[in-house]
Each structure stands twice: as C-alpha cells, then as structure tokens.
Design a protein that fits this description.
about 20% strand; 15 helices; ATP-binding; NBD_C; binds adenosine-5'-triphosphate; 18 strands; 4-carb_acid_sugar_kinase_N; binds ligand LCNOYBR7; alpha/beta
C-alpha cells in the first residue's frame, strides 16, 4: 500500500511529536530514524515520518539529507510531503528552515507552501505573523537564550525571508478564522502575486483544522506538528484512510533512566522536580573536555543507586552557566560533548539492563537514539501534548519517550514512568 503522507522532521523529538499528532488523528504511522535504506521495514503505514538531525547541521548537509528523505518518500508514493520543524521555528539567519524548504519546493516543483509552526496546546500561537510562546513573543520567551538557535525575532515572515530565496507572504487570522474556502482564495491570491511561502496565523486547533482542509491538495506543507491535525481527515474524505485505531501501550520492562540535555526552562523545572524524588547527577563538561572517563564514572554512580528508582542524568544548566561553558569550550563543542556523553551512557546503561529511557531535548534525543543504533520506532500512548511513548521493534524492546525541550508538565518524568505506558 502506498504511503499517503510523507514527513521529514528536522529533529527526533519533533518527529515523535508529529507522529503522535498523526496517530491521535487516526493514521498508522512509522517513524524511521535517518534516511531509510532498501532494508528498512515500515510495516503497514499510512504515514512515514523520517527523523533527521538536521536542525543545526551545516546547511548543505541539512539540504542533501532532506532531499534524500524526499526521494525515499516519493518512491513509496507519498501524495503529500510535510516538512516538520520546531513550533518555536528554531533556526538561524542561515537556516536551516529556509534552505531546506526552498530545496524541497524546487524538487517537488510546488509553487507555494504554507508556513505554520503553531501548536496551541503547547502555547505556540501565531497572530499577524508573530509567533507567541504562551503570553510572550518568541523573542521575549526563554527561546532567546537557546544554546544553539537563540530566537531574537518573533516575526515569521521576517525570519523566513532572511533564510529563503522565495517571496514570503501572510495569511492573516481574519482570513483563517473565516474558514477553508477563504484560506484557499487567499492562497490563490498570494500565488498569483508570486509569493512562494505563506505564513498562516493560527491561534486555536480550529484554525489549524481549517488550514488543514484548505491545503488538502498541496504537495508540500511546512510547519509544526499542529498543522498535521487536519491532514488525516482530508485522506479520510477522499476514501483513502480507514477508521482510527487507538495507540497500543509499550511492553518494555526494565530499569528506567532520564537523560536530559535540554537546557530549556521547562526541562530545568522538570529536573528540579525529579531531584526531590530520585537520584540525579549532573555531567561536568570540564571533566569531559579534560578527557576523564565521565561515562564510566556516571555508570558506576548509577550502579550504586537503588535499583527500584529511576535515575536522572543531565547536562542541562541555566543560561548563565551554558554561556560560561560555551566560552570555555566553544558552542558546538560543548553541545557535542554533552550529547556524546549522554549517547554513550545510554549504551552503557542498556548493557546494565535499562530498558526505559526518557530523553529530554531534540539534539540530545538524536544523539541517544543514534548511539543506541535504533532504526525505527512504533508510536504508543501520549504522555503530554506532543510527547508519546515509543518502542523499538526488536525482540529486546526499548521504550523511549523523546521529550521536546519545552514540552511537558513539571512532573513529566514521573508521569512518564508511572502512567504513560
Ligand atoms: N551544560 C551545558 N553547556 C553547554 N551546552 C549544553 C549543556 N547541557 C546541554 N547542552 C547542549 O545544549 C543542546 C540542547 O539542545 P536540545 O535540542 O537537546 O534541547 P532543546 O533545544 O531544549 O530541545 P528541543 O530541540 O526539543 O526544543 C544540546 O546540544 C546539549 O548537548
Ligand atoms: O515543534 C516542537 O516544538 C517540537 O516538536 C520540536 O520540534 C522540538 O524539538
């Protein structure tokens, strides 16, 4: 059976977020890690989400990986392609959202694509082209201090225009609110004016569903997981998608660990909460840089903890400390050292019988999932908006929850291990 929707996600937590939305809206979804090869089995899937680690990769690499992913999806007959990026539009003036979207648009030969990172359930809304995080403009939110992609502007048309060769326009809320027909007319007008990308305002799930209905025949869509909400219904209306199946709980049993690399405010609050109930340990970036075997030291510390409790290991630090660490070691190197250490730790802990992993942060999830050699994930029940449990297909099952840095309640980690499966 051909794939209906093919998605290319620029990080791993973003991929599970999107896969979760599609599962919640009744699609069978396979999430694959990296561009699949001929051997990758995806089972019976209505949608395939390819998780890349391209958000902060060099531009040329992000573009070429995304085009390879596109080719694989097109070979499987995908009717519609969704380029999934972060609901906080994580990028720099060089990219990678603009260059990847430009390249996909050219390859698909689509003259117009939507830009809509809105995710109202997690407080990301768009009004007059400005992205809000809760009550704050993106540029006033904690995203201004992100270790890799600090967001210092909230205007999506301006952010996109700096990265893309195409003309960028706006579909304002008054049009979106009026429904799918008006949205389609506005898109036609933008197209006629030579606009290649249209930022769509959206402040509610109803807005996202109206947008979804208006873009049923678009071959390329770009946005956050929210814009995917209305897409399964388009396939259902066209008689291509069967009735919804509820997600199946994960089966993995074994010790539980949280590996956190995200430095977001939400993750730091979640770590502080977990510190009251579980053993937790912070990685020392200077010791990693000095060549100490921090993986072995941390693994030995884990072994000494009570086996019935989850443990939490984090690189995460507040913005001031992150800045100081970056000054000492360089921005990319500091991030890479923490990611590599957490990835190697995941491998060491799997050898010690750990089977349930919560990973905080998109880049961090990329590092951990790659180190564990995971090729594909099945999507299980939702723990919090945008974060499902997932499970590997192998006989020696691992359950993983890949948590976007900013997502989840303060007690997310304990919720995940107690109720999420
Ligand atoms: N103490 C630290 N000093 C410098 N960099 C750090 C430190 N701790 C973590 N990092 C790095 O910060 C980056 C955090 O990015 P990551 O994508 O994992 O989280 P996030 O951006 O909050 O999550 P998401 O992408 O899901 O929104 C990683 O590269 C991580 O290695
Ligand atoms: O859209 C989001 O906020 C998340 O899915 C994500 O991409 C975090 O890395």
């Amino acid at each position: 059976m051909a794939v209906l929707l093919g998605a290319i996600a620029d990080d791993f937590t973003g991929a599970t977020d999107l896969a979760n939305t599609l599962v919640q809206n009744g699609m069978r979804v396979a999430q694959v890690i990296g561009v699949p090869d001929a051997q990758t089995r995806i089972g019976q899937a209505d949608a395939v989400v390819i998780a890349l680690k391209s958000r902060t990769a060099p531009v040329a690499q992000a573009v070429s990986q995304s085009l390879s992913a596109l080719e694989w999806l097109q070979e499987r007959g995908a009717r519609q392609i969704l380029f999934k990026y972060c609901s906080t539009f994580d990028s720099t003036s060089k990219g990678n959202i603009g260059p990847v979207a430009d390249a996909l648009r050219a390859r698909i030969d689509s003259d117009f694509a939507l830009i809509c990172p809105a995710f109202p359930a997690n407080g990301r809304t768009i009004y007059q082209g400005h992205l809000f995080v809760g009550q704050q403009l993106l540029s006033d939110s904690p995203m201004k201090d992100h270790p890799l992609t600090p967001m210092r502007d909230a205007s999506l048309p301006r952010l996109m225009q700096a990265q893309s060769h195409a003309k960028v326009g706006l579909i304002p809320h008054e049009v979106v609110r009026a429904g799918a027909e008006g949205i389609a007319q506005r898109i036609e007008a933008l197209r006629a004016a030579g606009v290649g990308f249209g930022v769509a305002d959206a402040i509610s799930d109803d807005d996202l569903r109206a947008l979804g209905a208006a873009i049923a025949d678009h071959r390329l869509i770009t946005g956050g997981s929210g814009i995917a909400m209305g897409l399964p219904d388009n396939f259902r209306k066209a008689g291509l998608l069967g009735p919804a199946q509820p997600p199946v709980a994960t089966q993995a049993t074994g010790r539980a660990v949280v590996l956190a690399g995200s430095c977001s405010e939400a993750t730091r609050r979640q770590i502080a909460f977990a510190a009251q109930i579980w053993p937790i340990r912070k990685l020392d970036v200077d010791r990693i840089a000095a060549g100490h075997d921090v993986v072995a030291e941390t693994r030995d510390w884990v072994t000494a903890q009570p086996a019935h409790l989850p443990v939490l290991i984090h690189g995460s630090a507040d913005p001031k400390e992150v800045r100081q660490t970056q000054r000492r070691h360089g921005k990319a190197a500091a991030g890479e050292m923490v990611e590599r250490t957490l990835g190697d730790l995941a491998v060491a802990l799997r050898r010690q019988g750990f089977r349930r992993f919560v990973v905080a942060g998109g880049e961090t999830s990329g590092a951990v999932v790659s180190a564990l050699g995971i090729k594909a994930l099945r999507i299980g029940p939702e723990i919090a908006p945008g974060v499902p449990w997932t499970e590997t297909f192998d006989r020696d099952r691992l359950a993983l929850a890949l948590k976007s840095g900013n997502f989840g309640q303060d007690d997310f980690f304990s919720r995940a291990f107690s109720q999420g499966r």
